[in-house]
């Protein structure tokens, strides 16, 4: 293919386009802009194909050594199923752990409740025994009191009915409190708490009717109850200066609230 020239050697143009003579003698006007545009488009297409080819080759490198694609897909599906099975199993394990933890917590709570109830019962039993022991300790002090046996005209149980609430057991020792709620201290041993008889004597000294419960006071002769109201329906029974039974009857008649205590 060559350019067509005129007699002067100039390129022959057709519609502004140079004319070429092909090997077969056919003359064709060459559209250069169209050819350039077409070449550019073909180059772009070629570049696109090349990039796609390179991307495909890069992806295929990850499958080097795999000749059977179908077998590979089946293997991947198997792995996926195994992974899902592991997830399901893991979920079951967590469920079992949660159930075991809940059961353990319930057992601990039940054991704690049972222990608390047993502790409460033991404490109540101990309080009852302690109360009985203290009552016996205080009651025994009234029964064994030398002061009561020598100076009181009423029996120990009536003395306890009147003054027993003033005595308490603290740290294993009997402690007496006066009407103001203060501990009674010994006058013979300053700084020390009064012993039972000394404390009882202090309480009796503060009692407004002490003359009527001590021996040698509040009585006049056999059978006399002493005090106002003697004779008639109000005549008192017993004898404050008589025997134990007579003194008890006299106190019960004069102070019925003591006999009820």
UniProtKB/TrEMBL annotation:
**Name of the featured protein:** DUF6651 domain-containing protein
Q: Where is the composition biased (Gly residues)?
A: 218-232
Q: Which Pfam families match?
A: DUF6651
Tell me which InterPro entries the record gives.
Answer: DUF6651
**Quick one: where's region Disordered?**
218-261
Origin organism is Cupriavidus nantongensis
* DUF6651 domain sequence ranges: 130-224
């Amino acid at each position: 293919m060559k350019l067509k020239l005129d007699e002067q050697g100039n390129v022959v143009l057709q519609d502004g386009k140079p004319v070429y003579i092909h090997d077969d003698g056919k003359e064709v006007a060459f559209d250069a802009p169209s050819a350039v545009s077409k070449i550019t488009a073909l180059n772009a297409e070629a570049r696109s194909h090349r990039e796609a080819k390179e991307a495909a080759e890069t992806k295929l490198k990850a499958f080097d050594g795999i000749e059977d694609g179908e077998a590979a897909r089946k293997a991947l599906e198997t792995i996926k199923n195994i992974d899902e099975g592991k997830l399901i199993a893991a979920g079951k394990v967590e469920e079992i752990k949660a159930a075991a933890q809940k059961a353990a917590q319930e057992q601990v709570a039940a054991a704690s409740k049972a222990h608390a109830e047993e502790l409460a019962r033991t404490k109540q039993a101990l309080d009852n025994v302690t109360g009985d022991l203290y009552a016996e300790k205080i009651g025994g002090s009234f029964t064994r009191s030398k002061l009561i046996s020598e100076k009181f005209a009423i029996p120990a149980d009536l003395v306890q009915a009147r003054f027993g609430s003033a005595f308490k057991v603290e740290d294993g020792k009997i402690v007496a409190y006066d009407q103001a709620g203060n501990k009674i201290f010994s006058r013979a041993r300053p700084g020390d708490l009064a012993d039972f008889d000394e404390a009882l004597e202090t309480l009796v000294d503060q009692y407004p009717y002490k003359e009527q419960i001590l021996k040698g006071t509040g009585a006049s002769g056999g059978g006399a109850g002493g005090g106002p109201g003697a004779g008639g329906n109000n005549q008192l029974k017993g004898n404050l200066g008589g025997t134990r039974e007579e003194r008890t009857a006299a106190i019960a008649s004069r102070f019925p609230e003591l006999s009820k205590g």
